[in-house]
Amino acid sequence: MNYETRSEDQMMNDFLQWPQQEHEPVNEYSCIGLLGKGFPHLFPDGAGDFTLKMQVHEVKEGDYFIHLMNYYDNRFTSDALQIITRKKKMMLMKDE
């Protein structure tokens, strides 16, 4: 392969397995692998995805997202805040 003539997107597609796009929306409360599907740039191949429930020790969802927001290079900060804000809004709507 001649990598010099290929675009960055073409090379990324050679190395990453992107999630399949589905026509039906997913249920974010019961979808296994949700974070890997929604944020493949942060969880390639689902690595570190809390929704896979593969932790050795039980981890609370809030603690997990706080840990992501404190990650050393801040790559998770904006996406984690988006998820937390969305969940809070959904909880408020559920209580009404």
Q: What does the model show?
A:
- With about 100 residues, the chain is mostly helical.
- The chain has 2 domains: about 1-55, no CATH class; about 60-95.
- The chain has helices spanning about 10-15, 35-40, 60-70, 75-95.
- α3 (about 60-70) packs antiparallel against α4.
- The longest helix has 19 residues, at about 75-95.
- The chain is globular.
- The chain starts with 7 loop residues before the first helix and ends with a helix.
Share of helix among residues?
40-55%
Whole-number average pLDDT? 77
Point out poorly predicted stretches. none
Number of strands: 0
Number of domains: 2
Shape: globular
By secondary-structure content and strand pairing, the structural class works out as mainly alpha
Write the H/E string, N to C. Answer: HHHH
Rg, please?
A: 16 Å
Spatial gap, N to C terminus:
58 Å
Number of helices: 4
- DSSP strand (E) fraction? under 5%
Main sheet specs: none
